[in-house]
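QA checklist item 7 of 12: single-chain prediction sanity check.
[x] sequence parsed
[x] length recorded as 438
[x] structure emitted
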Amino acid sequence: MNINYDILTYILGISSLVMIVFLLGMSIYYLIYWSVSARKVTPVPHSDKLTNFAVLIAARNESHVITHLLESLSRQTYPKEYYSVYLIVESRNDPTMQIAKEYGYHCFIRDHITSDRRTKGFALQECIDHINRHDRYYDAYMIFDADNILDDNYLEVMNDLRQTGVRVGLGYRNFTNASTNWLTLGSAIMFSYMNQITSKARSILFHKATLMGTGYFVDRSVIEEAGGWIFTGMTEDIQLTSYCIYHDIYMRYYPLVCFYDEQSSDFKTVHNQHLRWLFGYFERRTFLKKAGVQDDYHSKNMQKLIKFEFEWGLIPFVIYNVITFVIMVLSFVFGALAIFYGKDYHVGFLFATGGFEALMLYSVFVVPALLSVIRDNEYLKLSTGKKIVGVLTYLFYFYDFVFAFLDGFFHPSKRRTWKKIQHTGEINNEDLVNKSEQ
């Protein structure tokens, strides 16, 4: 094989240096978020003015886990007459209905189920339409999943948040089972980063937040201005986030109150989640320009900056990982070929370059994971050993997004197939365990 190893090593060396400079430039963006998110959150004042909430829970075949959520709802410090709970099911034979009746909560049975309407977003849409048809008026809707558990004052604090003018708000997404295995650890660290760094910084800088599946309230007016609940894709939370950012709707992340969420502990489920999140993220652009009312909360220039940051903030990170991975692979491949063809002079450089790029790839995951664990020590209740395992294995958890992309790319039907996440009801969060024992 006729390979000019002098030119090859020069190109790989220069490329490696360019990516170091690129990494330093990219790090400025993340360091800004890190430093901004260190600011202390000012508690919102308590309000005597009360919001009439409709609590919506997608609960098909969730009888084995729903009790924890319903118990936490029944313990709320918020006045009972100011919130109504609706469990959304798909059959009268669902045992979840009987549990809901025992707590005195409503059940809505879906009747428009087709293969293209399986998502949680369609379930929410049908329930909201049902509420409107029966002339029930609510000031805001709260969205939860069946595996969630709430702090006893969650609704009270969300009301206080709404009374400050926030139209879409959420608390801290905590975890019921973060310490189960390396997959739940990776998931908890990822959401911890999104909570306490990304969402917190966006809330401080732009009055925006990153919705993460559940735990949020959305003001009735937002839905009405959009022409109804139009967020029915694979990831309704990303679509709603995109809509709010494009229409400059006042959002806020408020970490001084928690809801708890179960993390998937088997690889197949995690992979299906990653596939849905990834391709749902790609389709978010279809919601950036949906019809609706522009709030104009910020100046036009600030709105442009907010949209740009949301649309392009992840792109440098993706570019860095792709190019660095290519350099690493090429370095190792040509290093092996150099051994085979007796180019001993270049072998050391090529393998050193490949090893360095592998280290750089690993570091861009280990460092953020470590920063997240440090920043979130108050809520991320894990032993030192579990934190070390989570940080060291975070790259392998996160890199499944690459396999999810390839899976969806070669199997287009998977991009549009919504699969229900099976919950176990496992709880090993020490705060929740202590509460249950009281």
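[x] summary fact logged: The radius of gyration is 24 Å.
[ ] second reviewer sign-off
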